[in-house]
What does this fold into?
Amino acid sequence: MLTPYYQYDLGILEDTLKAINRCTADRKDWHVHYAIKANANPMLLKLIRKHGLGIDCVSGGEIRVALENGFDASTIVFAGVGKAEWEIDLSLEAGIACFNVESEAELDVISERCALLNKRANIALRVNPDVDAHTHAGITTGTAENKFGIEIPMLMPIIQKAKADPHLSFVGLHFHIGSQILDTEPFIQLCKKVNHLQDQLEAQGITLKSINVGGGLGVDYDNPEENPIPDFESYFNIFRTCLKLREGQQLHFELGRSVVAQCGRLITKVLYVKQGTVKKFVIVDAGFTELIRPAFYGAHHKIVNMTSKGVLRRYDVVGPICESSDVFGKDELLNETSRGDIIAILTAGAYGETMASCYNCRSLPRSISGKF
It folds into this structure.
């Protein structure tokens, strides 16, 4: 197959989904929704649906894809700070489970669309809990300076407004503090914030049918072959032990990266090995058009030469895009590399293919399934 392309190991994905289900099997009040923004490849979605996960969407396009791939609307939740009218209408007509509402202005528009379409919407208010996830600034979502959610001091009047609206059914609260979180402490702090907030609300006679704690669990980008499945047991145990659910209350999770990251890798071919005065460059035929995370977030993926078994050398691995930021890794240790060698960029299943672009008039990457 012509490079570059994405390769997905469906065996790793299946093992990951089984691990999630093992950790949650004893809790019928827990519901895991896959954050489809991480990867919307149909071959992955088919397996995710088979294992019973719902879907977390942040656009009308994602809702359409979820429905087209067989997910029941009753398992779909819809987040995002900028829901357009057509997206709201699509969601109402489909009968999705819940809107995660990010602002009072959005609440008003959903109510208006419900009135026009003679529908009633389940809504959860997204709360900005002011918990620092200690991750990259571009993927932190739960601090006061972020655009997401409603800050706690502003929450009560909006709850009262939602409860009084005949077109809305207020079901609970939604939280999400960020992505690629490897430290357990932010999740513990989130649980404490939720517990305290629930106590405050109950003191004013407000009870919640559901709590949505979002996702954010990170993966091991440095040693993916040794740790192909994230530590779901520790992650879920935090909420099992620290979060005080009320009787009958439903708990929702929105995991994305941790579901699909490790099952995907980007396969690319070496076009040239270029010797500079200071550095040696491996120029591959993939660029940030195929995998933007290193250029966009400063992220690092492990890079492996799949062809050569020669001695280890240091290279900067770069792409062909006409931008200086088109770099996959600097001072990478690779087996001695030559033109035509096949390179694998690991842990690329999340925010890889789904963020690909046609910049420089390039074609979108293809994908295949195959065991690593």
Summary: Residues 185-203 form the longest helix (19 residues). The two ends are 16 Å apart (CA to CA). The chain has two domains: 10-261, 262-369. The chain has ten helices and 17 strands.
